[in-house]
Write a structure and sequence with these properties.
CATH class of the largest domain: Alpha Beta
CATH superfamily of the largest domain: Periplasmic binding protein-like II
Radius of gyration: 21 Å
CATH architecture of the largest domain: 3-Layer(aba) Sandwich
Largest sheet: 7 strands, mixed
Distance between the termini: 65 Å
Length: 247
């Protein structure tokens, strides 16, 4: 009887293993800090596997347009109108808003950037503001680069860098960087000086949906429900993503 019991347990475990899904999520680096924590918890609870791909908005747009194999897409909310033919109807879910902030190496100066005027004065004094390189598909970098073209930022050197902005500041590529708070919070050895003033309008609203090409749409839907449930809100907030304000 003992052997029969062990055999039954083995069969049950084998069945669970066979049913486990491998979910591919196309998501930009600006969400992957909190999303990875939620994915880790979901994997531990379900036995499923989550694989991340894409890593910047440009690559994600290409993957979705080409119907590359995948299950879930996370991207700026504004992209979802174009994505619509590639998505399972009714699967889109908002994740939140990613504010922009200024990052410095740990122990560095924390200037006052609490108003538009003080933010401009800070950039003028710093002389340089680094950001993720738009040429490799960084949406946030493109937004900071465009901001620095405004007349009030005349004389400030725009400095596109490779990789995540927080990591670049820790490396010493520049004293100060600007970009998504989520990226800056992920960087070890970096500190967030503070958010960009609201009137600059620099933020990214992000959403997620299930792709039509998904090989495991039921599990993909379950994953989205898990990462957008009420209990997940604290993880998103700690990672730098706040609730999208109602219009």
């Amino acid at each position: 009887m003992r052997y029969l019991g062990l055999a039954a347990a083995f069969v049950a475990l084998s069945s669970l293993s066979a049913q486990a899904a491998d979910i591919t999520v196309y998501s930009p680096g600006i969400v992957n800090g909190p999303l990875q924590k939620l994915a880790d918890a979901w994997m531990a609870e379900t036995g499923n596997k989550v694989t991340f791909a894409g890593f910047n908005v440009g690559r994600i747009r290409t993957a979705v347009s080409k119907d590359d194999p995948g299950d879930v897409v996370v991207a700026p909310t504004g992209d979802f109108a174009d994505f619509a033919p590639k998505l399972m109807p009714g699967s889109e879910r908002p994740l939140g808003r990613i504010p922009f902030g200024v990052v410095v190496k740990a122990g560095g100066a924390h200037p006052d950037i609490s108003s538009h005027e003080k933010f401009v004065a800070f950039t003028k004094k710093a002389g340089v503001l680094a950001y993720a390189d738009p040429k490799v598909g960084s949406l946030t970098g493109a937004m900071v680069e465009e901001m620095l073209k405004r007349p009030e930022f005349s004389g400030v050197e725009p400095r596109p860098i490779k990789g995540m902005i927080g990591d670049a500041i820790v490396r010493g590529d520049a004293q100060f960087g600007g970009g998504a708070l989520t990226e800056e919070l992920m960087a070890k050895g970096a500190e967030v000086v503070g958010p960009f003033p609201d009137d600059l309008g620099l933020h990214v609203d992000v959403s997620a949906a299930v792709l039509k090409v998904s090989a495991a749409p039921g599990d993909a839907q379950a994953f989205l429900r898990y990462v957008t449930r009420a209990q997940a809100a604290s993880v998103w907030k700690a990672g730098g993503i706040v609730e999208t304000p109602e219009k």
